[in-house]
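Need residues for this backbone.
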């Protein structure tokens, strides 16, 4: 907000209704040569007291972590550089740092700075779920699974989630990964065990979280010959084959190209069937998801 400041010391809390101790930014937008002075004091300064000078067209002056009143006045000088008492006023912009919009009361963390004329709305690729510790990584190693054996993952969601990235790599062997939703047409005879590890993507806690949220996603795996069959068609899939020199091959998608939403209470199967050659399969499966708690 813009205020007119005169030549006598004025309490900022009276002038602006901003609470004493609140962080503020102050900018002199008066005439060329106008000077604003600032003093932080529990009592009103004397007329002869000198404060911190804020010149016209100078940088924004910020005040934080102060327990006392902020006093403000407009000053001018005579040719002998002494303070002249004047009835003129100077225009100044004073804003509480937590609300830096002139009219809309937008929170300060939506802006790149609190400087009028240069601040911009903060726009970046960082997702809110990352900042709120709601993104997780699932990672599992595949080690020397014989050719002909199926690798079957069963994934269950307690909360809705969005799969942001999936990565499947083989350093040996060849596998076709097929994705199936759980239906009555699935015949599964394998023994499931917990497999892999789920960890938060952002290890830095949000200021609003005392601890990391606990994911409702669970992952189990079974390995065996002919343990999964269905008459249903897969909803997604990819084939990965390492070459004869043992060079790894991989396939992945990310949020830039493909994003998959999964409702709560969903059961899905990732089935890795042997293809291409007789080598045992070794590699890794990883995907990143955001959970909608």
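Answer:
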């Amino acid at each position: 907000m813009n205020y007119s400041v005169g030549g006598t010391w004025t309490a900022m809390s009276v002038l602006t209704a901003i609470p004493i101790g609140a962080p503020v930014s102050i900018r002199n937008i008066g005439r060329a040569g106008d000077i604003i002075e600032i003093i932080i004091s529990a009592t009103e300064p004397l007329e002869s007291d000198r404060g911190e000078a804020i010149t016209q067209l100078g940088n924004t002056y910020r005040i934080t972590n102060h327990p006392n009143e902020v006093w403000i006045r407009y000053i001018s000088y005579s040719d002998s550089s002494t303070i002249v008492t004047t009835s003129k006023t100077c225009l100044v912009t004073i804003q509480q740092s937590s609300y830096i919009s002139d009219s809309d009361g937008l929170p300060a963390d939506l802006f790149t700075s609190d400087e009028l004329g240069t601040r911009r709305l903060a726009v970046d690729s960082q997702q809110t779920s990352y900042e709120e510790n709601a993104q997780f990584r699932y990672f599992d190693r595949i080690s020397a699974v014989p050719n002909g054996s199926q690798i079957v993952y069963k994934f269950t969601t307690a909360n809705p989630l969005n799969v942001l990235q999936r990565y499947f790599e083989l350093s040996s062997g060849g596998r076709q990964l097929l994705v199936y939703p759980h239906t009555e047409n699935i015949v599964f005879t394998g023994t499931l065990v917990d497999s892999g590890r789920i960890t938060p993507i952002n290890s830095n806690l949000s200021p609003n979280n005392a601890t990391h949220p606990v994911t409702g996603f669970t992952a189990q795996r079974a390995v065996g010959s002919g343990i999964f069959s269905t008459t249903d068609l897969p909803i997604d899939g990819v084939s990965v084959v390492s070459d004869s020199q043992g060079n790894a091959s991989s396939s992945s998608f990310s949020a830039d190209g493909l994003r998959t939403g999964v409702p709560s209470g969903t059961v899905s199967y990732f089935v890795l069937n042997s293809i291409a050659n007789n080598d045992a399969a070794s590699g890794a499966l990883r995907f990143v998801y955001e959970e909608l708690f």
